[in-house]
Amino acid sequence: MLILLPPSETKAPGGDGPPLDLGVLTAPELTEVRTEVVEAVGKLAGDVPASRAALGLSPRQDAEIARNAELWTGPTRPALERYTGVLYEALDVGSMTRAQRARAGRRLAVGSALFGLVAGDDPIPAYRLSAGSALPGLPTLRTLWRPALAPVLAAVEDLVVDLRSGSYAALAPAPGAVTLDVLSERPDGSRSVVSHFNKAHKGRVARLLASSTAEPGDVVGLRRLLRRAGLHVEHDGGPALTLVVPAP
């Protein structure tokens, strides 16, 4: 089972890993595009006003640009420990047992505007680049990534659970993947999507799937696993599942 997560805008600083080495990241087929994007982002960091415009940053966020200037030289840490925010707080890899953490490292991967895709244990530096960012002199990130990333995702033989947000799913499709919608249900029966709530519950689902000893092979097995965990999951027979949770 492969669980695809969205990245987060916020990243944990520092790390004790060696500087970035694209050669050790998962999916070496992506190295050429990774190199092109990393070089472009690093070069852009030399022009602070241009970086602000391209990355949608304010002067108060210039530290993010400084991080981009050190992509090749800054320390690294595993991807699952680099990304922060609501989803990753709910995932909470730091509280996993050693066995659970090992499974999480194998099963979880993160969609990335900078690297295309990174495995949970891939060592990466802190950076700032979103799927919607426009790098001067380059095509859109979707145009850059799709030809290289789509074949990588298409070649995955295990069940894929795609929890990526729309902008990252648009970088390349994951054929046949199971998707998960999260709906908040009010006492009157009405339902809605709440972004913050959605991220937290996807993080909890990712934790459950990453740490479980079960290995579902299809959407029915996945639905069964989630229901056994006490989750209210609806399934219309297609590749999409709907997780219904009480409104906060």
From TrEMBL:
<dbReference type="Pfam" id="PF03883">
    <property type="entry name" value="H2O2_YaaD"/>
</dbReference>
<dbReference type="GO" id="GO:0005829">
    <property type="term" value="C:cytosol"/>
</dbReference>
<dbReference type="InterPro" id="IPR005583">
    <property type="entry name" value="YaaA"/>
</dbReference>
<dbReference type="GO" id="GO:0033194">
    <property type="term" value="P:response to hydroperoxide"/>
</dbReference>
<protein>
    <recommendedName>
        <fullName>Peroxide stress protein YaaA</fullName>
    </recommendedName>
</protein>
